Amino acid sequence: MMRPILPPLRHGLVPLLACLILFLLHLTAAATTPAPAPSAEELDSGEYDLWLDGGPAGSRVVPDPLGPFNYVREFDQMVGFFAEWQVSEPGANYGGMIEAEDGPLGGVIQTDNTLEAVWCWSRYRQFSGRDTYDENVAAAWVYCLNYPAWLEEGAPGDDYYRVHNCAWGLTAVLQYEAATGDSSYTWYAEIAGTSYQQRLNAFCKGWAAGNLYLYGEARDDAALRTAADRQGDDVLAWLNTYPLIYLGYEYWAMSSGTALWGVCNSSFREDPAAGQAWLAINADYMDVWQGWFNAPGYDWDSAWNVAYCNAHFAVWDATGDPDYWQNGKYVADNLLSYDTDDDGGIVADSTDPVTEDMSWVSCYLVKFGVDRLMGDPPDHDAGALRFAGFEDGQQFGWGEPVAIDVFITNFGLSDETGVDVHLECAAGDTAWTIDLPFAALDTLTFRTSWVPPTEGFYTFVAWTEMTGDQNASNDLAHAVIQVGQPSGVPGGDATASLDRPTSNPFVHETTFRFTLARTGRARFTVYDVAGRRVATLVDGVLPGGGHEFTWDGRDDAGRSLSSGVYLYRLEADGRSLGGKLVRLR
What we know:
Elements: H1 13-28, H2 40-45, H3 49-53, H4 71-84, E1 97-98, E2 109-110, H5 111-128, H6 134-146, H7 160-180, H8 186-193, H9 202-219, H10 222-241, H11 243-246, E3 250-251, E4 254-255, H12 256-264, H13 267-270, H14 272-282, H15 301-319, H16 322-336, H17 359-374, E5 382-387, E6 395-397, E7 402-410, E8 416-425, E9 428-436, E10 441-450, E11 456-465, E12 476-484, E13 497-498, E14 510-516, E15 520-528, E16 533-542, E17 545-551, E18 564-572, E19 575-583
Parallel strand pairs: 6-12
Antiparallel strand pairs: 1-2, 3-4, 5-7, 7-10, 8-9, 8-11, 11-12, 13-14, 14-17, 15-16, 15-18, 18-19
Helix pairs in contact: 1-8, 4-5, 4-17, 5-6, 5-7, 5-17, 7-8, 7-9, 9-10, 9-12, 10-12, 12-15, 15-16, 15-17, 16-17
């Protein structure tokens, strides 16, 4: 939306005095109690059932997987998407970030979106060494000076949005300084950090507390850390009222993942032992993935989920429990899978079309998920990402053609030339030599249509060879597909068939469906990757036809299995069918 031009802020004595006065006010202000918890009568009434079961489901809960991903490539693609939606024309909104490609937010330009992009572009410069978006960052600062975070929209007494923006100001300035060495915007962060008002909702207060504490650490400022710790304790008190409910709660563009991230990065950084004890009891109450439900005006499930992603990574930081790392990865990969048009943007509401990608939730995903998963890329690293015509464990009917494509990508920071690629499979062997610029993803086609000659299992292996490659773990892509004789094929005997699990990966439960051609004995078992049977889910005589059952991830002794890869197998009608299943907790 269009705004009037405000006079830019000036350096000098006035901002510094303002900063000092606001800082003193901040230290002396009494923290207010967050929103009251529901009463016992309200809980009994069913009003809060929405937050326990996720409410009415939408048509898209977990997207079809597009991964595995090259996170360097995803980062590169997403910062390019942000540049496309930055205002470049001179005028009141110059340098601002447009919220959405299209739709109701397509004309909205605000400071928080712009500060988020500053963080992403600055981080890109830091890890890649490329100055591609330096002009975008400079333009973004013009907008953020004209519309400071602490003066952003908000009615009197309704300051949560300004606080949200100020917290982004803190982290954007820190990342910009880390990337450029330029400290000329330090004063901006100082005013933002001392402009927090006390009337906040728990999510914004958590976001503010965590960023203020991290800023205080970076500046070695004990007073800021103390103020942030007090804010974090306020949020922790709110969570402690009803952890089972409040750790699975969504509102506006945030979820309780934001509140828990804030507590982990304030109160629990101040007292790690207390944090570990609290998380050991309560962290499993936090949602992993929240499907879409109709919250009028704010049904932004992608934004809720990216906040859960952020929190799971924060719990991993605090506890070292790898299950939470896997949960964070699961959410980030699912959100990346919404980018079906491969333009670097994702929707905030999973029921929206891909032509309405949102820059702000895409920025969240870069900072909270993609950057985490990317880590510190090596200079030289090429590899085979995955097969494109099929995926590992996929089943095909006999006579069904199979396309054989393989994705080769550059995981490293340098442009590469002369990368050798090899493919071995039942359809024949081949080799290519290709060049891979930074963040490139190259699709190599071996067969557009290959028909397996018989039933059975077929293995495909692709790998790269490159002088100086610094990471051999991602050189190879491997997949096994199964080709079988489906029921009702002329000249063939009817046999059992097995569908893919309804949720894979799954957290709480998944459903298996299979069909028997005739009455007979059927056995369905689950094994760990070492080949040990952990659960027997079906073992007996069943009638012909369709069957369905749900598994909650427990073994034969009733114990909940840990996160990891498992193999499932159906033995029926003289056949053995199976696949791979991932459990997340």
